[in-house]
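INFO  loader      accepted 1 record
INFO  loader      residues=291
INFO  predictor   begin
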Amino acid sequence: MSYEIINLEQRSDEWLSFRKKHIGASEAPIIMKESPWKTPRDLWMEKLDLCQKPSYTSKAMQRGIDMEEQARQKYIEMTGTHVCPLVARSKEYPFMIASYDGVSDDKKKIVEIKCPGEEDHSKARNNEIPKKYIYQLIQQMLVLDVDSVDYFSYRDPNDVALLHLTREDVKSEIKKLIREEQKFWECCQNLEEPDLLPQDFMEKNDDQWKVAASEYLSIKAKLKEVEELESAARNHLIQLSNGKNCEGGGIRLTKYFRKGMVDYSSIPELRSINVDRYRKPSIESWRFAQL
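INFO  predictor   done
INFO  writer      dumping tokens
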């Protein structure tokens, strides 16, 4: 068996804790830059507890939660296949999990239920799965190692759409997802930020920001000019010292030696040791760059 069943109730505190330590199927579109709600960096910060995840539930999210059971029963009625919620983890890719809306008793058939707004449901009526959900469905197939998944779009008992996605339909996307999730997971393990997207930056054009930015750039330019003058004067004094310790004119120039940095990666005894256990907590800092 290429997966393991995880006996957790979806949306429970235990499930939330477990989910934070893995990549869920609903997070796959975020990593693949297809989510309209979050960026890879947003998700990375949540995984590492570098930000507080919003605890509120939107009206659309609550609507989906409230209607999920009736939608599942409608799917069972239409297909004749009994399904129930399930949480599973891939053995081949242990960081990869999926929390299913419905899985058949033999674990061969899965369904993803959406109770969407009119725009996404209209696409489903026209036999189109919204692009923002494709990678979620791909991961669901990967975790349980099945060849297809049903996408069930539900508005009410008389307004539903049932679509079918197979591995063959998304063959080229499967490798991309695995590769990108592995990269993202390495970023989480190594405390390295994923690539930033334009959405990761808030556009600021108010007068107060513009004045502050102008002041910063002006000071930065003056500081660079002073640093260049200081460096030239420093080098001139070193040249005049002829390699000797000197003092006079209000300064003392001392020649000294210090130990070189240790290249820990070249120490064979440390290669089998997880040095991250000894790493101090991360420190918040800011980078400034001129556009």
